[in-house]
Design brief:
This protein is mainly α and 63 residues long. Helix 2 packs antiparallel against helix 3. 79% of the residues lie in helices and 0% in strands.
Protein backbone atom coordinates (compact mmCIF):
# COMPACT_ATOMS: atom_id res chain seq x y z
CA UNK A 1 0.00 0.00 0.00
CA UNK A 2 2.85 2.39 0.80
CA UNK A 3 4.52 1.82 -2.57
CA UNK A 4 1.27 2.54 -4.41
CA UNK A 5 0.77 5.79 -2.49
CA UNK A 6 4.37 6.83 -3.17
CA UNK A 7 3.95 6.06 -6.88
CA UNK A 8 0.82 8.23 -7.02
CA UNK A 9 2.49 11.14 -5.20
CA UNK A 10 5.87 10.84 -6.95
CA UNK A 11 5.44 8.77 -10.10
CA UNK A 12 8.51 7.20 -11.66
CA UNK A 13 7.28 7.35 -15.26
CA UNK A 14 5.64 9.89 -17.51
CA UNK A 15 2.88 7.35 -18.22
CA UNK A 16 1.59 7.62 -14.64
CA UNK A 17 1.71 11.42 -14.79
CA UNK A 18 -0.17 11.27 -18.09
CA UNK A 19 -2.87 9.13 -16.53
CA UNK A 20 -3.15 11.54 -13.60
CA UNK A 21 -3.38 14.46 -16.06
CA UNK A 22 -6.21 12.78 -18.00
CA UNK A 23 -8.17 11.92 -14.84
CA UNK A 24 -7.79 15.41 -13.38
CA UNK A 25 -8.69 17.02 -16.72
CA UNK A 26 -12.03 15.23 -16.63
CA UNK A 27 -12.50 16.24 -12.99
CA UNK A 28 -11.77 19.91 -13.72
CA UNK A 29 -14.12 19.93 -16.70
CA UNK A 30 -16.92 18.79 -14.39
CA UNK A 31 -16.01 21.44 -11.79
CA UNK A 32 -15.90 24.19 -14.42
CA UNK A 33 -19.24 23.00 -15.85
CA UNK A 34 -20.81 23.12 -12.38
CA UNK A 35 -19.57 26.67 -11.79
CA UNK A 36 -20.53 27.93 -15.26
CA UNK A 37 -23.58 29.88 -14.07
CA UNK A 38 -22.08 30.99 -10.76
CA UNK A 39 -20.50 34.32 -9.94
CA UNK A 40 -17.54 35.37 -12.11
CA UNK A 41 -15.14 35.24 -9.15
CA UNK A 42 -16.08 31.63 -8.40
CA UNK A 43 -15.59 30.67 -12.07
CA UNK A 44 -12.19 32.34 -12.17
CA UNK A 45 -11.15 30.68 -8.92
CA UNK A 46 -12.12 27.22 -10.25
CA UNK A 47 -10.38 27.91 -13.57
CA UNK A 48 -7.24 29.07 -11.73
CA UNK A 49 -7.14 25.95 -9.57
CA UNK A 50 -7.55 23.78 -12.65
CA UNK A 51 -4.72 25.50 -14.52
CA UNK A 52 -2.44 25.38 -11.48
CA UNK A 53 -3.09 21.68 -10.97
CA UNK A 54 -2.65 20.72 -14.63
CA UNK A 55 0.49 22.88 -14.95
CA UNK A 56 1.95 21.10 -11.92
CA UNK A 57 1.34 17.72 -13.59
CA UNK A 58 2.92 18.99 -16.81
CA UNK A 59 5.98 20.27 -14.94
CA UNK A 60 6.42 16.87 -13.28
CA UNK A 61 7.00 15.23 -16.66
CA UNK A 62 10.24 17.20 -17.10
CA UNK A 63 13.20 15.33 -15.69
Amino acid sequence: MGDLLLDVLLPKTDRVVGIQWIVMSAFWLVVIALTWRKDRDIRHFAWGLAMLNLAWFAARTIH
